[in-house]
Amino acid sequence: xxxxxxxxxxxxxxxxxxxxxxxxxxxxxxxxxxxxxxxxxxxxxxxxxxxxxxxxxxxxxxxxxxxxxxxxxxxxxxxxxxxxxxxxxxxxxxxxxxxxxxxxxxxxxxxxxxxxxxxxxxxxxxxxxxxxxxxxxxxxxxxxxxxxxxxxxxxxxxxxxxxxxxxxxxxxxxxxxxxxxxxxxxxxxxxxxxxxxxxxxxxxxxxxxxxxxxxxxxxxxxxxxxxxxxxxxxxxxxxxxxxxxxxxxxxxxxxxxxxxxxxxxxxxxxxxxxxxxxxxxxxxxxxxxxxxxxxxxxxxxxxxxxxxxxxxxxxxxxxxxxxxxxxxxxxxxxxxxxxxxxxxxxxxxxxxxxxxxxxxxxxxxxxxxxxxxxxxxxxxxxxxxxxxxxxxxxx
Length: 395
Description:
Blueprint: H1 3-19, H2 35-45, H3 78-89, H4 101-104, E1 119-120, E2 123-124, H5 152-157, H6 177-185, H7 188-198, H8 205-218, H9 225-230, H10 245-255, E3 269-270, E4 275-276, H11 328-336, H12 365-376
Antiparallel strand pairs: 1-2, 3-4
Helix pairs in contact: 1-2, 2-7, 3-8, 10-12, 11-12
Keywords: Heme, Iron, Metal-binding, Oxidoreductase, Peroxidase, Signal
GO molecular function: cytochrome-c peroxidase activity; electron transfer activity; heme binding; metal ion binding
Domain Cytochrome c: 79-188, 245-379
């Protein structure tokens, strides 16, 4: 324990003894900043957060071949990402203190959900929760399956203001976002964290958005088998020396266009980030969860193909917005034979040849299995275990 923390503990003990109330904590004035702060932070977070030794969010290693970056002006700092981590995991951001962002975006599942449809404070949400892997390294900067949020910053507070998800909608009897800000201002640890990060205790929606977006953008996965192979070759078209024959075959199919007997996945999911082309339209999946008669043509976004599986090869929950595909094989088979009937928003790259009746790749079972093997090489390890992305609250 350093001298400053020892002094802080002694001061804290004196304050308690003078107050006669063991729950009493004096609000620090401008000249005592950091003394009571660290005590309250330790009480809530233990060793998970140390304001004197912040986790590294700002200067993580990024491979040289990764070129996309949608950070723009909201540059990641260790302090703001730390605040974002607390907000991301805090159930106080829901009206009944039962749901956090992390409830639907779980580290164990690549910051996605293994439930088909996530549970909110007022029932189920409308769509399967999207994985939040490598959101910083994507050409598509709009968010949600239907791209209704213009930026990641805007996206972060929309679930909070959704009646079903976290409940601060301000409509039909729900409290509003302003009520959440008041709620957070009453929590000692946010007084201290905002003072530490911003130099004052003012809590605003813009600050919530800024810090949560920084934390989410910090979540990266570049230690996959693919990355090991890519780092020792000049480009993706070469055989990766660490791949099996099946994995190299799957990679070749992934990159080769349909008119060359490939699958052409690369046209919508460009390597090495494997993010979605922002110009993509609907992918042929138009279902609505639990309603076999309804259709949804507005879904045009998708997460990166990285970490569909965990490091043990187990899928991180069902695929597609309606969780209609339980396996990667199901998804590949969907792209192998797409029916364009009635889909006025189907991406032109999936309409097939003359007539535009839908794509038919004529992939064999062996080729489909090879594609699955390649997709598994896109899964990392540290994203599931790194403490800086874990729940900071003491359980």
